[in-house]
Structure formats: C-alpha cells, structure tokens
Predict the 3D structure of the following.
Amino acid sequence: MYDIADIQDIPPFSMDKMEKERFLTGILGELTAHHYERCPKYRRILDAWPFDVDGIEHYRDIPYLPVRLFKEYDLRSVGELEVVKQMTSSGTTGQQVSRIFLDKETATNQTKILTKIVSDFIGTKRLAMIILDTASVLKDRNMFSARGAGILGYSIFASQKVYALDEEMHIDFDALDAFLKDHEGEEILLFGFTFMVWQHFYKELARSNRSLDLSRGILIHGGGWKKLADEAVDNVTFKAELQRVCGLSRIYNFYGMVEQTGTVYMECEQGHLHASVFSDVIIRNPWDFSEAPVGEDGLIEVVSVLPKSYPGHALLTEDMGRILGEDDCPCGRKGKYFSIGGRIKDAEVRGCSDAYAAKFT
Amino acid sequence: MHMQPSSHNLNLLIPTDSEIGSIQAARPREPFDDDTIAFLDELSKRLLAEPSSRAYPDVVTFAFWIRKGRMREYRKEYRERHPGERRLGRGVVFHIAPSNVPINFAYSMVAGMLAGNANIVKVPSRDFPQAALLCSVIDDLLHQKRWEAIKESLALVKYDRSKNEWTDYFSSFCDVRVIWGGDETIEDVRRSVIPARSFDICFADRYSLCVINADELVKEQDIASVARSFYNDTYLFDQNACTAPHLVVWLGSEQNKQRAKDLFWDTVKEITGIEYDLPAVMAVDKLMAFCREAIEAGQVQRELMQNNTVMRIRLEELPQDVVKVRSLGGYFNEYDAECHDEIVPLVTKKFQTLSYYGLEKSDLQDFIVHYRLVGIDRCVPIGRTLDFDLVWDGWDLITAMSRIIG
C-alpha cells in the first residue's frame, strides 16, 4: 500500500494522460484490494458485481459505488475504534445524509492533499481569510457536516480569520470593516458555499447601502449550483455580480463532495474544473455506464487516492458533466478538465404504485 | 353529512353543465343493463372514430374493451354464475384513480357503471392527453338527450390531492369507495370517513412475478412474441404497475434453463435497446438496488448485460423478503427452481399477479389452492398482465359493487 509521503510532493497538475493512468491504476487497484479485504459489505458487492480484484488493468474498470449507498449503509474498512472523525453530507432536514468514517491517516491525508491542490491556485502563503458563513456551523465538533468540514479544511490557508455572517445569517459589517482595515493592502482569501455566498452575502450586500472593497480578494466557493439554477444564476452571472458589488475579481469555483474530501476539483482562470493527479473524473453514459468520449454528457464518476478508511475511492455521483479536454487546457495544467451540468432529474414514472414518487418528495 | 365545499378548488370535468351534488339522487340500475351497455358501445365507436385516439394504444385498447360484444359476453358469464339472482347497484361509487396511469380511471368507472351504480370518478391530477381526450368524448355524448339518464349518474372530477375537503365530501355519502394507489394514498384517503354501511375496495401496492417453463420456451418458434409480451407486461409502465413482474422463476431442466434464459433475455434486450428510454436516475437507482441486494442478501450474482435497460440478479436461494429488493425500469431477480413448490414460503399477501409461460392456468390455480397461499390473486399468460378484468385483485367487482335482492 502506498505511503502519502511518497506521493504528496508530486506537483498536482504535472502528469500527462499515460503517466497518470499508470499512477492511478496502481494506487486505486491497491485500494480496491484493501477495501475488499477489510470491508465485508464492499466485498459482497464486488463478488456479486462480478469483479476480479486481482485483474485490474485500468482504474476505469474498478466497480463504482453509487454515492447514495453511503446514506443507507455505514461502510468502513477500519475498526470502529480507529475512527477519529465522522463526516456527514449537508442534507436538508429530514433528508438522509452520507456518513463517512475517517481514521487518523485518512483525515491527515485529506488535509495534505487539499493543501497541495489549492496552493496551486492561490499560492502557499497564508492569507487573512474571510469565511462567508456563520461560526455556528461549527458548533457541534463531533459531527462534521460538509459545510463545517469545508470551512475547517480551507482554514489551513488562513493566517487569521473572520466570519462574515452572524448567527442570524446577516452580514456582520462592523467585524468585516475592522478586519479589512487590519489587513489593508494585503491579499484576502474568502471561502464559502456557493448558495450561502449568493443568498446571504451577495444579496444582502447588494441590497444594503454599505460598501465593501474586496478587490484584493480571492474567493473559493463550491457546493453545487442546484439552488442557484432555480434562480437562473449561472457561474458567469455569479462572477459578474460579485465583482459589481464588492470588486471581487478572482473567483474560483470548486467541485467536491464529502465522500471524497481532499481531492477537490478547482476551477482555473479559463473557467474549467481540473482533476489533479490524486483523483480523476470518468464520465459514464447512463445507458450502459460505458466511458463517454470528450464533449459528451454523462454521469460523473469520481475516483480518489485518499479514501483508505472507507471504500469510497470510486464513486458514481448523481451529477451530470462532460470532459472538455485533457492535458491541453490553456491554463497549463495537465489532466482532465471538465464542466458540471447539474443533478440528474427525477423521473416521472408511469405505473400505479406511488412508492417511487414518495422517495423523491 | 359534510357540507359541499366551495367549488373553486374543484374542476368538474363532467358533466360540465350541472351540479355535482345532484348525483346523490340517481337511482341504481341492474348490473349490465341495456342502457349502460349501449352507452359504452357508443363511447367505443366515438373513441375509435376519433383520429387522435390512434396516438394512444391505451385508449384504443379501452375502446375495444367496452364494445357491446365484449360487454354482452361479460353479462352472459355473469348470469351463468348467478342464475336467477336479482341485483341492483349499491348506489354511489366514489373512485380515486392512481395519479400516474393515464386511463385506469376509465376502467374503474366502467366497472362501477356495469354494476349498476352512479359514479364519481377522481381522474389523475396530472394532465394526461389520453384522459383529456376521453373526457371530451364522454362530455360530448352526455350532451345528447339520449344519454340524459347516464348523465345524471356520472361525474368526473379533478382536484389537487391536497384538497382533502373534496375527498371528505364525496366520501361522506358514497356507498362504495374504490381506492387505487400506493399504501400511502390509501392511508391518506381513509382519513375521510364513509357512512356506516359503506366500504372500501382498495387496490394497494402489490408485488408480481413471472414463471417461465424453460422446457417449453426452447421449443418456441416465435421467441420474439414472448419477449414482446414480457416487455409489455413490464416496461410499458416502467415496471411500476402492480402487475409488473420483479421476480422471474425458471422451471425445467438445467440445460434448457440456460438456453431459454439466453434466448429470452437477448430478445428482450433487443426490444428495450430500441424502444425503452431509460432515464439516468433509473440507471443509478438500479445500480443502487443491486448494491443493496448484494449487501443484504449475500448470495446473489449480477448477470452482465450490454446495457442498463435490463438488470438481472441471479439468486442462489430465495430470500424471505424478496419483495423489498425491487427496483424500477427493468430490474429482475431470477431464480432457478426445481419445481414451483419452492416459491410457497415466499408468497405473502403482497403478491398479486403470477404471469406464466409454458404452464397451464388451471394447474397454477390448483397449486395456489392446494398450498392455501395467502397471496397471488390472478394467474395470467405472459403479456396479459395489464388486461383489466371485472375480477381484479381477488374481487369480483360486479358482485362487490351491487346488492342482492333476496
């Protein structure tokens, strides 16, 4: 099994297709055997798949578990006592949430790799950081929600930090003004979840008669566009409006999920999401789950070298997306770059049973 | 009795020009009375003459079903079963049709009419063109003087599921309430009280299976038509009709089973590959169901197919709770049985339709009675599971919705 020390210093966007395929196939193959041995539920799935753990020729052949499986089952490849952290997805009330079990090693590796990837975009220097959320998200330290985990994860880039929203989710202008004054002339890092940034920061700021100068800011945001799509706000509008209300011009969206924390997909200056050497996306045609060619829409599978304490190294998401290219993004980063097309739609099912509809409402 | 709610929440489709409450004054008829049969025959002719009907095979099937000839056959069978018996309808039947099948409401309505009742029919709140077509043709007919008596005893309504005051109101005076839908819908409707002597006929969520005799299937000349029959049973309603099989049990010699399965599924897959539009969410759901089943049941094996339209899970043994592991849009558990006795421990009250190929209906009926099974209400040849019949889900609808004059 690989040691993180051997791979963490590989520059995250340095490998071309051939090299990366060999690299990932080796590690992901090892992880498959590791989970097969240690997680009985995973083993049952692979046995029924059917799949030969010893015959992996390419990581695209590794069975991909539907992400929803983590909402229904506790899946881990370590003993209960080794779990140091349980993370949950941020579902709305009543929704089932994913439960992800981390041991010390996996938790540490997540932070290490996240740092490597994000540093490629914002540099390695620690910055004063504004979190576009409320501090109360972090109240319960035992249960790490995706929101809390994101905030904590990105806090490693901070020399000093402030929360932009109070408990009632209103902008704390006084705190922000003071913070900005303290760090006048410095680059400022901002972090938040896309919807929170839009709903509670952008909208309130646009409505208010206060002004904030964030022209030296770098915003990193993620968490999905589903709610904003309902308001017909896309990435272009999002960027333009934030620039308009507070001068923010360096805005990076990211794609990631609590099931594969650490191996995040950051948006480059061209507006493309990038896969680092530590993870990859495979677009699968819903018709037969075969790999879709560049430019074709399909279900996004994500693979990651990080999940060691739970069998989440190859996951089929419910997001649609398409590969835009590989190794040739004008930004200079190697690896696949892609775009997200939103969540798959609930089907209007025919038939007399209402069991299916109920599941989605 | 409940007050009639204010009418703005109700869409009275038929009759368009009278009061909904007046239906309570309608008098019952004898089952299969001439007037009703004549009306249905006229409706059949109008539907078949309607050019837009051709786009909807379900409308055409319905139109054929209500022809005079077919209805008279039903009457003959009925009279033979009940010689000399005098009956009248029970009064007013309130039908709540399933929300995701376009014209199921029409079949329910016809059963209520044939039994001699006045009928209030809640059509699906979703807009189906088939339902709209049917309603407009019925409405046209009811404007003719000839069908005045029918008009007094028929109301088609549409209202939002959340508008319970209408369910309360119709329930408060109906003599029989027919509820189609999942278990949750039924529970919901049952909160509306019906009069002391009234009762519900509920068509709840069910589970169905298919039994295929491989020894016969390998001799079949027209395997395509067998596969087509199975496709119609299953995929026409996304495997979400209660009649759609989720378990396929294979009988016959080992050798024939293997050959029959290859032949059968290859042919089914040819049809689904061309005709079935599999939504992405269903492909993921099926993968999810498979993972769940692998974790829970253990002794299962997925059969690799070329695409996701057909997902087959081979069971090494029959689990007790096979009912729980189903998915939609073409997800099948398969089991090789030595003989059909093996399914006995499996059958619960949830089992509805057993469709078969290469077996005798009477043998299957004997089998169910012999083992005194608590479930399986009907045995029909493969391809016939969706055919509506006046005996449904173990109910004889005509006798259930009429009263004996002793």
